[in-house]
Amino acid sequence: MNRFSLTGGIVITPSQERFASLRVAGALIDGLGDPFTDAENIDVSQCYVTPGLIDLQINGGAACDFWAQPDLLQVQKLSAELLPCGVTTFLPTLITADLDHIQATTAFLESIGVGADTGSDADFGLVKSCHARLPGIHLEGPCLSPQRPGVHPAKCLQPLQIGVLEKIVRRSVKLMTLAPELDDTGQALEYLTNHDVVISLGHSNATLAQANSAFDRGIKMVTHTYNAMPPLHHRAPGAVIASMLDNRVSNCVIADGLHVDAQAIKLLVKVKGVDKVVLVTDAAHVGTSEGGLVGSSISLSDAVRNMVNWQVSTFPQAIRMATLNPAACLGWSSKIGQLQSGSCADIVVWDKASLTIRKVYVGGELRYDGS
Q: Is residue 335 situated within a structural domain?
């Protein structure tokens, strides 16, 4: 069994910050404290040691496009691209398309193991030959507001009805972005909840009252806050203000400085608190283009550094927003997102001075070494 200790660094769990050794036994965290006396000690002095980053919204990258027809090799290449960025877990995100296309892509991702129940915490979310965890799929659409489609093809938008959901919601779908104002009765939201799908408000034209009703019906997340929803207005408060004022809701945000200005992110964090903000990239194969908002071109480690450089948060706070918070939103915080005894040994070692990434471990195995 693989056993080692990371010694000499500052461990961010991220609920606490400690100068301690982090012990790893096999694929799991053994604990914090003194190093093993009968195993390898790896010196990480002048470094931060954090959980692996978790990105809930990845549309693709240079090697893979989830908007198209990806294959296993492309998914493997994407996971390899994300490792140097510290991302050890991500959700493939499928945007609005023909229902047949969504069904086919979802079936393919399931066929390679995305969203499978392994029955083992150590193997949670692991996929064939991919060195990052893919514990499920994020459906961004197709039940979105015609007034706020963004880049989603309007011709493929669907009503928020159980009949539509029955065609696209499979066991691998763990998160779904939708416009809740399209469901007057709440029956569609109830269907998703009964099928263990976490619901996030997004691409929505909801009023304050409609958003509040959705939160009362169980929606506890907002997708890329500020984007593809009514802007802040003092006489017409909408979903953004509703979510800011509701302590039950976690707000995802793209911290690239283009989708959202740094000062707007500072306002969000000040109002919500660091435990209710989730950093995402919304990264896409095409990235941002000519100033347009077509996915982003940043990595999650870029977002963490931006939060620090913009003086929006401290580094430990930014780490929480990219690890524990997303894990908690999906109910996975006992497995990933924390450096605690029994959790998956997904670990990132950061240079303390530059906040660049030196090492990345997934399940206790060194998967990236940039030192």
A: no
